[in-house]
């Protein structure tokens, strides 16, 4: 009986270390994609950045595609959780919500996702995985936006207005990839907040 207890105790820390290793790999993969693009982001480069061996990386993620799609999904989920936590009481002031949604598209996660999109346009084995991932992340982001804005999608045009906000945010994220677009972004966020107040009531 003592042996089983000892084995279970040993398994706990081992599983915890495994989760930490996995998280380090995912975070390193997103950073590498954002900084070096698809061509410069290999499993070996990510493993080195995460401080683990290539073998350990491949134990968690057998293929490069597994690693990078999991990385973008993981960080997208983290950002969604952080966004919800910012407004845990429910609908908030619209300018703050619009700004927070736009911020989703101006950081390392968006740059990493953008590199995945570009790679997927040329890599047949990657395309279906990225397409499915983007659809899932898009649906979740839309749900969060509706919740935080207090939008009633049963009203004609409201769903399209919220989607337009997210499309605009993505466009601002693209503009920010090449130059610091903060000043123009602030004016656009203010205008979109006014548009949402008029459209959503």
UniProtKB/TrEMBL annotation:
HTH tetR-type domain residues: 19-79
UniProt keywords, alphabetically: DNA-binding
DNA-binding region per Swiss-Prot/TrEMBL record: 42-61
PROSITE patterns in the cross-refs: HTH_TETR_2
Entry superkingdom: Bacteria
Gene3D superfamilies according to UniProt: Tetracycline Repressor, domain 2
Pfam families tied to this protein: TetR_N
Designated name of the protein: TetR family transcriptional regulator
Lineage of the species this protein comes from: Bacteria, Bacillati, Actinomycetota, Actinomycetes, Kitasatosporales
């Amino acid at each position: 009986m003592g042996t089983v207890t000892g084995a279970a105790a040993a398994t706990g820390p081992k599983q915890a270390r495994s989760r930490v290793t996995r998280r380090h790999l995912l975070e390193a993969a997103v950073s590498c994609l954002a900084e070096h693009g698809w061509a410069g982001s290999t499993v070996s480069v990510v493993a080195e950045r995460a401080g683990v061996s290539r073998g350990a990386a491949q134990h968690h993620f057998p293929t490069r595609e597994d690693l990078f799609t999991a990385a973008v999904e993981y960080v997208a989920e983290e950002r969604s959780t952080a966004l919800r936590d910012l407004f845990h009481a429910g609908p908030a002031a619209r300018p703050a919500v619009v700004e927070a949604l736009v911020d989703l598209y101006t950081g390392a996660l968006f740059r990493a996702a953008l590199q995945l999109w570009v790679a997927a346009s040329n890599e047949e084995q990657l395309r279906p995985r990225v397409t499915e991932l983007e659809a899932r992340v898009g649906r979740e982001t839309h749900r969060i936006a509706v919740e935080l804005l207090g939008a009633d999608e049963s009203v004609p045009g409201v769903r399209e207005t919220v989607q337009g906000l997210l499309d605009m945010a993505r466009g601002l994220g693209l503009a920010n990839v090449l130059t610091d677009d903060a000043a123009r972004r602030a004016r656009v966020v203010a205008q979109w907040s006014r548009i949402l107040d008029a459209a959503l009531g």
